[in-house]
Amino acid sequence: MTTEIKAGSYIKIPKGTLVHQYGKVDKITKRDSVAQVTQIYEQYDWEDGFRIELPTEVRWSENNKSTLLSNVEPAEAPAPHKVDEVKAKEPTLRQRMVKGTKWKLTQDAQVTKEKRVPVKYPNGRMGYNSETELDFIVPAGTEIEIAGKASSYSPWYSSGVWLPVVAKGYAKGFYIEYKELNKKPEQIGEAEVIPMFAIWDTAKKQYYVGYDYGAYDYATRTRNGDGLAYTDKLAKSKKFKRLADVRVHALIQTGYYDDLPESWDSVPEWMCGRKLFDVPDTWEIVKYDKLTKKEIERIELVDTFKRSWRLRELTVKYSSAVRKVYGDLEKKKKLNDWSAIMMFKKKNESNWGYWTEELTQKEIEEINELLGRFGDEVKIQKGHSGFAVAIKDAMTATMIRLAYQGDLECAIIDFTTMKEVVAE
């Protein structure tokens, strides 16, 4: 019965159902399918001052599609996706010809060049047409290396697929059309693995795609479900070029930088938005090869994420430089080797705590020159508006204070106090 359907439950969408998708033409489904509900949307309109109830809609996370609630019926959750049964497809020759790969030609390959041919137009004016002609032939047995990305046009705008190459015996690199290389060349050198990253949910057995804004009901200011969209296919997942990008993405989506002191000076404004969702404890990072799509390794995500949030309060209370020093010593399990942190900071004369003045070059040089005298007795971390300096004993702190003649404020925070802040 439709009364059993709610946000988070699964529905069966029968063949022949009229489905609406915002910004696109309504379509009739061609087969039965199962989807997870993100929102039950009660529709209404106004006519002559009276509220008129309209048929209720149900929405699901696949590109924010919807249909009438009366069109669907409850369904069981689909079986978990079995990763072991998915075999990575072998890349084609064209896909393997990436920058850095080395090949040996087994047949001659032609290299063409542009030729400008004078032409007289119907209006009597003279002009030129571009034609290509043979420039030279690269003989079989020549070793070449792919020097860059393929292009759909040559340097003289001839259509096709063109690859920049360098070859032994040729002073300059040149472009060669792919059809001239697609003659069973022998690969003699691999390119370096280009790592890519994705997020995998170990409970759902699916890849993370992103946040589904259709799951948020702006009328009631409520969110239906967790608002997260997933896919069975790696190709459709959200992709990251660096490991750090994955970790920062998780922090941004959970509001880590929202109202964080120094954030307005040190990170772009778009990173400082409010929280959209909670990161599930079942998330982990998948590192894979961009070319072959083969998995390289699994990397933890949640422990580092929670640790970043736990240390966030040190930035709020003191500064990002203090947080970095504390976090580095904690990670290396050396907190007990140091007694306190000295904090040199610009005087904040503004009542607006989220704006901080940046250190001048003179102030940076003064601190570096002073602390350089103490060698391994201190551990230095520069921040946007100050320095954090780990010290081993009170004598070192006294000597630094007496020697410093600059204008920065100086404060000392012991590690016991910082541990209490982190534990709150």
| Domain count | 4
Poorly predicted ranges: 351-355
Structural class: alpha+beta
Number of helices: 9
What is the end-to-end distance? 48 Å
Radius of gyration: 31 Å
Q: How are the secondary structure elements laid out?
A:
Elements (H helix, E strand, L loop, with lengths): L9 E4 L4 E4 L5 E2 L4 E9 L2 E4 L2 E4 L3 E4 L4 E4 L4 E3 L17 H4 L5 E3 L4 E12 L5 E13 L4 E4 L4 E3 L5 E9 L6 E4 H4 L4 E4 L5 E7 L4 E6 L4 E2 L4 E2 L4 E4 L11 H11 L9 H4 L16 E7 L5 E6 L1 H16 L2 H12 L8 E6 L15 H11 L6 E5 L3 E6 L2 H10 L5 E6 H9 L1
Antiparallel strand pairs: 1-4, 1-9, 2-3, 2-8, 4-7, 5-6, 7-8, 10-13, 10-17, 11-12, 13-15, 14-15, 15-16, 18-19, 18-23, 19-22, 20-21, 23-24, 25-27, 25-28, 26-27
Helix pairs in contact: 5-6, 5-9
Describe this structure in words.
The chain folds into 4 domains: 79 residues; 91 residues, SH3 type barrels, CATH 2.30.30; 125 residues, no CATH class; 104 residues, Alpha-Beta Plaits (2-Layer Sandwich), CATH 3.30.70. The two termini are 48 Å apart. The strands form 7 sheets. Strands 3-2-8-7-4-1-9 form a 7-stranded antiparallel beta sheet, with no helix packed on it. Strands 10, 13, 14, 15, 16 and 17 form a 6-stranded antiparallel beta sheet that branches. Strands 22-19-18-23-24 form a 5-stranded antiparallel beta sheet. The protein is of the alpha+beta class and 424 residues long. Helix 5 packs across helix 6 and helix 5 packs across helix 9. It contains 9 helices and 28 strands. About 1% of the residues have low confidence.
